[in-house]
Amino acid sequence: MPPLLFPLPDARRLSRRSFLAGSTSFAAAALLSTHARGAVATTPKFSAYPFSLGVASGDPLPDGVVLWTRLAPQPLETAGGMPPEPVEVSWQIADDEAMTRLVQSGTAVANPSWAHSVHVEVSGLRPERWYWYRFKVGTEVSPTGRTRTAPPADALPARLRFAFASCQHYETGLFTAYDHLAREDLDLVVHLGDYIYEGPAAADRVRRHNSPEIIQLDDYRARYALYKSDPSLQRAHAIAPWIVTWDDHEVCNNYAGDHTGSKRQPHAAYLQRRAAAYQAYFEHMPLRRSAQPHGPDMLLYRTLSYGRLAQFHVLDTRQYRTAQPQGDGLKPPSPVLLDPQGTMMGDRQRDWLFTGLERSPAAWNVLAQQIMVARVDKTAGPAVAYSMDQWPGYEFERRRLLRHFADKKIKNPVVLTGDIHSDWANELIADFDQLDSKSVATEFVGTSISSGGDGSEAPKARAHLTAENPFVKYFNSERGYVRCELTPQQWRTDYRTVPFVTKPGAPLNTRASFIVESGRPLLNRV
User: Fold this and answer.
1) Per-domain boundaries in the chain
2) What is the CATH number of domain 161-525?
3) Nearest CA to 377 among 364, 390, 361?
4) How far apart are CA 188 and CA 241, in angstroms?
5) By CB neighbour count within 10 A (0-12 exposed, 13-18 middle, 19+ buried), where does 63 fall?
6) Which 3 state secondary structure label does DSSP give 422?
7) Containing H/E element for 405?
């Protein structure tokens, strides 16, 4: 089993600070993805097709994107079936699908320290253009992917069309929704987390995980390889650039900062596990080198703009949060929820977000994040209970966020959410203790791709959830994704669902559509 790139200095006397201080520098780590020590293989021989995990692109800028692949001829084996040597990989990008009009090409090193993954940061491209790309190694050629650059920073595009998705538990369902998503006319895709699930192989599932619960780096790598070997997921990655962030299952269920969530394990072992999980996440996502992990620390929150039409504020609500109050789960209101020390984002990320929102020139300010912001009472009758793992468990900071939207007159804030395996459309009102208070933002919650298995178009809880929470304008628990179309004047959201995921062939339905008019944070069903 390979060691982590950043081994623990001394597991017996471990804190997160000592972990980071004892690790090699971030700058040195950045070199590992593109440089290699010693000879580099230029004409390797493989036991099978090395591009078994497909290709992807991500984080589009006006002049470029990130191109990704990983060499893995035997993807479920240790090291993906690759020898422990660096390999030279060439890449090409063209402005036609046949790859006859090349606009750029180059080489990168697939280093065993990073699971022979490749992250190419292409620059010098033209803005707001479609491009096609592929990789070559030896005599092998990867599938061709399609990507798109963002508009110029000062441009106001007429339209942006994207989809967002989350929660793709391999065992509980097929990724049929991605087949439908891959046929959409999209400029980009946003993934809000739970890209993998960390649990052990279980019986009586649609398909099975490939190991016990994942703990070590090799475990996480093999789990990502299992998921990324899915043809439907590969097709969805190949149609457009992705913007990604994580939730909890990329490490372990309901973890919060330095706290292990529902898994009880020694602190040192947990930090080792988190470091392994973060490294494997980076290795398998189309992320820039600025996101390379440093032990159990990885800078994932960032801003991406689509001209002056939309600005995506991509959040990380796992790494910096305090532990869930009252022991997690559904709990009644308590003064502890108003503790100013309780945080979802941490001080630095919150300051970055608030400053970015205030300075944004965009017509729409999009928060791409993980867990529901609306304070939903999830119990029927007079009893009240909120989820402690969602924003209502951090009520002081939740109110602070909504006040910032209102007080700073943030232009058209829209929250995108995943996590809970169901579709919701929420108006985020200024004061959830006064249910007739004005709406200051809107929230679209997307269901899972497959997590939870077959869902329901008419869930039993719908009646009391919408009756007791009038700001909830839609609720559905089928599987699928959410498609959004933006113009300077309005935002349209379509909830795209499939009726089943436990067998192939599910058709696609549009169960509900909403329009938000610029300057009026209200949900209008169409």
Assistant:
1) 40-147, 161-525
2) 3.60.21.70
3) 390
4) 5
5) middle
6) coil
7) helix 395-407
How far is 19 from 232, CA to CA, in rounded Å?
A: 38
Distance CA 148, CA 188 (A): 8
* Tens digits of residue pLDDT in 12-54: 344 554 444 444 333 334 344 444 455 898 889 999 999 999 9
Type of residue at 141: V
d(C-alpha 432, C-alpha 437), whole Å: 8
* Alpha-helical regions (H) of 205-318: 217-228, 231-239, 267-284
Q: Which residue type occupies 326? A: Q
User: Which helix (H) or strand (E) is 368 found in, with range?
Assistant: strand 364-368
Are the C-beta atoms of residues 509 and 499 closer than 8 Å to each other?
yes
Instruction: State how beta strands 130-137 and 140-141 pair.
Output: antiparallel
DSSP secondary-structure letter at 59?
E
Helices and strands (H, E) in the chain, number of each type: 9, 24
Which residues lie closer than 8 Å to 227 by C-beta, 6 or more apart?
A: 168, 170, 195, 196, 233
For residue 8, is pLDDT > 70? Answer: no
DSSP 183-208: TS--SEEEE-S--S--PPP-SSSSS-
Give the range among 294-298, 365-369, 461-465 with minimum mean pLDDT. Answer: 461-465
What size, in residues, is the chain?
526
217-228 and 267-284 helices, crossing angle to 10°:
40
CATH 3.10.350.10 fits 40-147, yes or no: no
Q: Please, are residues 152 and 126 in contact by the beta-carbon 8 Å criterion? A: no
Q: Measure the N-to-C terminal CA separation of the chain; round to a whole number of Å.
A: 55
Cα 216 from Cα 248, distance rounded (Å) = 16
Residues 231-282 have pLDDT tens digits of 999 999 999 999 999 999 999 999 999 988 666 778 899 999 999 999 999 9
